[in-house]
Specification:
Layout: E1 5-6, H1 13-32, H2 56-64, E2 76-81, H3 91-99, E3 111-118, E4 129-136, E5 139-147, E6 153-155
Amino acid sequence: MFIWTAKLRRGRLAAGAAALLLALCGAAVLTSGVLSAGEVDAVSPAPASPKGVKTNEDRVAYLESYGWTVSPEPLSVEELLIPEEFDETYTQYLDLQAQQGFDLTQYRGKRVKRYAYAVTNYPSGESGVEAGLLLYKNTVVAGEVLSASLGGFIQGLAMPG
């Protein structure tokens, strides 16, 4: 079970609500089986170190190391609880993270923060694309790029070839 909380500035409430809706739609696409295992992009190891990511600038630089141009401030910041036990709805997400070298199983029962950023340079020009990073303390433990638009997608952090 995930516990979602968000700290949003008053002026960013609408953006935060939209980001949360986008994340929930992305999770729905992921858990509904709309994407087959072959449609989730495989990625190579991360070009930047996931450790020592302490500030907003560090998070933006981490995403930029994958080739993404993102909004300078996060759309939302959410606190999540990684479940103690994963059910079948997490299979695709865990596989995607494992392909990137992340192992969420070692963070079972831990609280993490999810930072979501608007992607402004997605290769297809699609709008509404978001890059998300899960951090435990100062370490990136998971990440994805997703779109919840019709026929939405979820992929690893690597820029599509």
